[in-house]
């Protein structure tokens, strides 16, 4: 005889919602990962024909433009729709104003027209920051005492953003965390009639994190002295993250970002809930990449199930787009139509 369950008891039966894959999919549609949910960060170097593996990020390399095009072609065939470009210089000199961030020799400025022509469907975002180009390695212009000169910094950042936009960037992404940079860039784009065809992706809540270590090696952007705690956010501060989002929205940001990802899921959720009108980006940073890579390599966890779980958690917390060095492998999984 059937057991008679009360209405309340029936409500609490969960297994009947997840007994096959289709039913499980219905429970998780908002956390699906498609190629549109991924943005791939790439490093462009001065020598057009070289490839430099990055030792702190096994599997990730810096590319000259000719090699980068070969690297991107198959990924675009698998659905890659956007990249985030970083320039790295070795021979060009660095100076206190980061002159080579927007000189005609800058590898990003040189690469943009060629990327636009080679990949007409690819959306190209450019990281805008001074740190890879300054002799002191800080993200802004400094006063003689080493503190940030904010007005001079946002003037430089505006000039650099406009130069990348003129060279063909669809999106400029300021990562410096200077006050007023979004408004300054928007002003610069307007002055050059670019406002309607270039978006600003704001690194809205960028925390002073221990997870950027491998990136500083990758981008050769280690500060020569001190740290970035006077402009990046303290890891415990929800208040500053929400104020930063409010500031960037008020200044006209088109998209918002939280960075890093895994340690800041609560921040992302709050920013997304406060500003649901804005696409939310999350940056799964170099240390998060290295952590999963090395743990899997050491046999501590299963690479695929751990990475899939992290990706889903980023989506669940509110990310529309995940910026990830793992993009090539995730595109493979998607293409094989296997669940990630
Ligand atoms: N402005 C870009 C970064 O700081 C990237 C950090 C990382 O991948 O560790
Ligand atoms: Zn920087
Ligand atoms: Zn940075």
TrEMBL record:
SUPFAM superfamilies: Aldolase (SSF51569). It is an enzyme of class 4 (lyase). Keywords: Heme biosynthesis, Lyase, Metal-binding, Porphyrin biosynthesis, Zinc. Zn(2+) 1 binds at residues 129, 131, 139. GO terms for molecular function: porphobilinogen synthase activity; zinc ion binding. It comes from the Eukaryota. 5-aminolevulinate 2 binds at residues 286, 325. GO terms for cellular component: cytosol. Its cofactor is Zn(2+). Zn(2+) 2 binds at residues 138, 230. Pathway: Porphyrin-containing compound metabolism; protoporphyrin-IX biosynthesis; coproporphyrinogen-III from 5-aminolevulinate: step 1/4. Belongs to the ALAD family. Catalyzes an early step in the biosynthesis of tetrapyrroles. Binds two molecules of 5-aminolevulinate per subunit, each at a distinct site, and catalyzes their condensation to form porphobilinogen. PANTHER family: DELTA-AMINOLEVULINIC ACID DEHYDRATASE. Homooctamer; active form. Homohexamer; low activity form. This is Delta-aminolevulinic acid dehydratase. It comes from Zophobas morio.
């Amino acid at each position: 005889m059937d057991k008679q369950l009360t209405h309340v008891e029936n409500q609490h039966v969960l297994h009947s919602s997840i007994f096959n894959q289709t039913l499980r999919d219905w429970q998780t549609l908002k956390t699906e990962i498609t190629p549109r949910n991924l943005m791939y960060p790439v490093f462009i170097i001065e020598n057009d024909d070289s490839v430099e593996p990055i030792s702190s990020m096994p599997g990730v390399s810096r590319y000259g433009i000719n090699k980068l095009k070969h690297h991107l072609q198959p990924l675009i065939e698998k659905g890659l729709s956007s990249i985030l470009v970083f320039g790295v210089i070795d021979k060009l000199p660095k100076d206190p104003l980061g002159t080579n961030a927007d000189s005609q020799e800058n590898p990003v400025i040189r690469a943009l027209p060629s990327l636009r022509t080679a990949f007409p469907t690819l959306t190209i975002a450019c990281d805008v920051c001074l740190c890879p180009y300054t002799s002191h390695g800080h993200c802004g212009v400094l006063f003689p005492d080493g503190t940030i000169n904010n007005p001079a910094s946002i003037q430089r950042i505006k000039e650099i953003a406009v130069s990348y936009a003129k060279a063909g960037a669809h999106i400029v992404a300021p990562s410096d965390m200077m006050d007023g940079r979004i408004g300054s860039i928007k002003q610069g784009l307007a002055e050059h009639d670019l406002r309607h065809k270039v978006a600003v992706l704001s690194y809205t809540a960028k925390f002073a994190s221990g997870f950027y270590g491998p990136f500083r090696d990758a981008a050769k952007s280690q500060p020569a002295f001190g740290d970035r705690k006077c402009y990046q956010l303290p890891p415990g501060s929800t208040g500053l993250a929400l104020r930063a989002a409010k500031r960037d929205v008020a200044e006209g940001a088109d998209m918002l970002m939280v960075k890093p990802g895994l340690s800041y899921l609560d921040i992302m959720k709050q920013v997304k809930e406060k500003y649901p009108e804005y696409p939310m980006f999350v940056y799964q940073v170099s240390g998060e990449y290295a952590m999963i890579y090395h743990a899997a390599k050491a046999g501590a966890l299963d690479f695929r199930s751990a990475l899939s779980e992290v990706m889903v958690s980023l989506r669940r917390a509110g990310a529309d787009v995940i910026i990830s060095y793992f993009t090539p492998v995730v595109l493979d999984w998607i293409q094989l139509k296997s669940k990630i």
